[in-house]
C-alpha cells in the first residue's frame, strides 16, 4: 500500500507522542507484542491504529506529529551539514554531520524542543558542555561545542567510527576476561581523569562505551547535562532499545543530592558484570523491580554465573558494586591499581572477599560451582513484618507500665 508506514516510523511517532506527553508509558506498553516479556518487546505494527481506537490519541494528532518529525529532519545547524542519523537514546537524537569550517566529520546530539522551557536545564547544559570541552583524554568522546539553532539545542562531539559495547553484547554475548579487562581499564582511566577534574558521569552503561575500529574504548556523553533526575532518565528508557535502570547506583535511585564518583564506579561495575556474565546484575519485570533489587537484593557473584571467571575479577566487581558506597573503592585510581594488578596476573590489592561462597557450596556437596542467577527474593524490611509492630507495641506498653509503677512507688514512699 503506498504511504504505508514502516515499523520504525511507527515507533518514532509513538516515542514523540510519549515525549510530548500526549500518550502515557502504560498506553505504549499496551501496544507491544508479548508485553509480558522483559526483553525489548516489539511494538505491534498496528500500534498507532490501536492507540486511536483506544481514544489515547486522534488521527489528527498523529498527522501533526508526523509533519513535525519530518521538519526536524530538515533542520539546519549553521556551520554544519547534517548527514545521517546515527541513533537515538532516551533523551536525544544523534546525527553524523560535517563541520564545514574544519572539514571534519562530527557527531551532533540534538535535544528535544521541550527542554527549551527549563531555563535552569539550559544553563546547566551550556556550563557542563563548555567544561567538558576542556577534557580531552583519549578514552573520552571529545566534546567540541554546544549551541542553539532555531528552537533546539545541540551538543557537538567527536564522531566515533565503531560500535558500542551494547551492540557487541547484542551480537556476540559476553566478552572474554582479557577483552573485558582491557575495555574496563580504559574506561576507568577516562573516569579517573574526569573524577580528578570534578566531573561525575552519572550514566555509565554499555551504550555509552564506544569501541573504535582500532579497539580504543571511549566513554560517551561525558559532560552532557541531564534533564531529569537519574531515575526519571533511566525509567524514560524502559521498553526502548535496552531500557530499565540496569546500571544505576543505589544512591542515584534514592535521589541523593551528593552523588559522587562512587556512583560511576558502581555503574562501571554493573557494566563489567554484564560484559563478563552476559547478564545484567539485577533483572526484573519493570524498572521499579530492578531498582528495588539494586537497593536490597544481594548480588550473585559474577563467578557464580560464569564459573570460568577468576576470583580476583569477581572480587573487584563485588567491591565496585557494594551497595554502601563507603565499601566501594575510595578513588578511581585505587580501582585502576586493582585492575592493573589482576592484569599482571596477580591478586587484587584491595578487593577481598569475606569468605569464598563457592568453597561453602562445594563443602555442602549439594550443588555444582555454577549457580544460575536466581531471582533471590528480597526479604521484607523489618518494618514490613507484623511481628515487629506487635513487639514495638508491647515494649511501649511495658515501658509505660514501668513508669506508672515507679511513680506509684515514689508517691507511696
Ligand atoms: N560520538 C558519537 N559518534 C558516533 N555515534 C554515536 C556518538 N554518540 C552516540 N552515537 C550513537 O548514537 C546512539 C544514541 O546515543 P545517545 O543518544 O547518547 O543514547 P543513550 O541515551 O542510550 O546514551 C548510540 O547508541 C550510538 O550508537
Ligand atoms: Mg549516549
As a percent range, the share of helical residues equals 40-55%
**Name of the CATH superfamily of the largest domain:** Transferase(Phosphotransferase) domain 1
Q: Judging from the principal axes of the Cα atoms, what is the shape?
A: globular
CATH architecture of the largest domain: Orthogonal Bundle
In DSSP terms, counting alpha (H) and pi (I) runs of 4 or more, how many helices? Answer: 16
The run of helices and strands is HHHHEEEHEEEHHEEHHHHHHHHH
Main beta-sheet annotation? 5 strands, antiparallel
Beta fraction of the residues?
Answer: 5-15%
Low-confidence sequence ranges: 1-5, 238-243, 365-380
* Nearest-integer average pLDDT: 83
What attributes does this structure have?
single chain; 413 residues; alpha+beta; Phosphorylase Kinase, domain 1; Transferase(Phosphotransferase), domain 1; five-stranded antiparallel beta sheet; three-stranded antiparallel beta sheet; globular; disordered N terminus; binds adenosine-5'-diphosphate; binds magnesium ion
Could you characterize what this model shows?
The protein is α+β, with helices and mostly antiparallel strands and 413 residues long. It has 3 domains: 10-74, no CATH class; 80-158, Phosphorylase Kinase, domain 1 (2-Layer Sandwich); 162-360, Transferase(Phosphotransferase), domain 1 (Orthogonal Bundle), CATH 1.10.510. It has 16 helices and 8 strands. The protein has a 5-stranded antiparallel beta sheet with strand order 1-2-3-5-4, with helices on one face. A 3-stranded antiparallel beta sheet has the order 6-7-8. Helix 7 packs antiparallel against helix 10 (261-277), helix 7 (177-196) runs antiparallel to helix 14 and helix 13 (311-320) runs antiparallel to helix 14. The longest helix is centred in the C-terminal third of the chain and has 27 residues, at 386-412. The protein is globular and about 95 Å long. The model is unreliable at 1-5, 238-243 and 365-380 (pLDDT under 50). The protein binds adenosine-5'-diphosphate and magnesium ion (MG). Magnesium ion is lined by residues 89, 207-208, 220-221.
Amino acid at each position: 500500500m503506498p504511504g504505508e508506514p514502516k515499523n520504525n516510523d511507527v515507533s518514532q511517532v509513538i516515542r514523540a507522542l510519549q515525549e510530548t506527553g500526549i500518550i502515557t508509558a502504560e498506553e505504549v506498553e499496551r501496544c507491544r507484542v508479548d508485553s509480558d516479556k522483559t526483553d525489548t518487546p516489539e511494538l505491534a505494527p498496528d500500534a498507532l491504529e490501536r492507540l486511536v481506537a483506544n481514544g489515547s490519541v486522534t488521527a489528527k494528532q498523529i498527522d501533526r506529529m508526523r509533519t513535525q518529525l519530518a521538519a526536524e529532519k530538515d533542520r539546519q545547524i549553521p556551520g554544519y551539514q547534517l548527514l545521517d542519523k546515527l541513533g537515538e537514546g532516551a533523551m536525544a537524537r544523534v546525527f553524523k554531520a560535517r563541520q564545514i569550517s574544519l572539514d571534519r566529520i562530527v557527531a551532533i546530539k540534538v535535544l528535544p524542543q521541550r527542554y527549551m522551557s527549563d531555563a535552569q536545564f539550559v544553563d546547566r547544559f551550556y556550563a557542563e558542555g563548555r567544561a567538558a570541552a576542556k577534557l580531552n583524554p583519549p578514552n573520552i568522546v571529545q566534546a567540541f561545542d554546544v549551541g542553539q539553532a532555531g528552537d533546539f539545542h545541540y551538543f557537538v562531539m567527536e564522531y566515533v567510527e565503531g560500535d558500542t559495547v551494547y551492540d557487541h553484547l547484542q551480537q556476540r554475548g559476553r566478552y572474554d576476561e582479557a577483552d573485558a579487562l582491557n575495555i574496563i581499564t580504559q574506561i576507568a582511566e577516562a573516569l579517573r581523569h574526569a573524577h580528578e577534574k570534578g566531573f561525575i558521569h552519572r550514566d555509565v552503561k554499555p551504550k555509552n562505551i564506544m569501541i573504535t575500529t582500532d579497539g580504543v574504548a571511549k566513554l560517551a556523553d561525558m559532560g552532557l547535562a541531564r534533564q531529569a533526575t537519574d531515575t526519571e532518565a533511566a525509567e524514560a528508557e524502559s521498553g526502548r532499545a535496552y531500557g530499565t535502570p540496569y546500571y544505576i547506583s543505589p544512591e542515584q535511585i534514592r535521589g541523593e543530592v551528593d552523588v559522587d564518583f562512587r556512583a560511576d564506579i558502581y555503574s562501571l561495575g554493573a557494566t563489567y558484570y554484564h560484559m563478563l556474565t552476559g547478564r545484567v546484575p539485577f533483572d526484573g519485570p519493570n524498572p521499579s523491580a530492578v531498582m528495588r533489587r539494586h537497593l536490597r537484593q544481594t548480588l550473585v557473584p559474577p563467578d557464580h554465573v560464569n564459573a570460568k571467571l577468576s576470583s580476583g575479577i569477581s572480587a573487584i566487581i563485588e567491591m565496585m558494586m557494594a551497595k554502601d558506597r563507603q565499601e566501594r573503592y575510595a578513588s578511581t585510581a585505587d580501582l585502576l591499581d586493582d585492575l592493573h594488578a589482576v592484569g599482571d596476573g596477580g591478586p587484587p590489592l584491595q578487593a577481598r572477599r569475606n569468605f569464598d561462597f563457592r568453597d561453602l557450596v562445594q563443602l555442602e556437596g549439594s550443588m555444582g560451582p555454577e549457580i544460575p542467577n536466581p531471582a533471590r527474593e528480597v526479604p521484607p524490611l523489618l518494618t514490613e513484618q507484623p511481628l515487629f509492630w506487635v513487639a514495638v507495641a508491647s515494649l511501649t506498653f511495658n515501658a509505660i507500665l514501668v513508669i506508672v509503677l515507679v511513680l506509684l512507688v515514689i508517691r507511696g514512699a
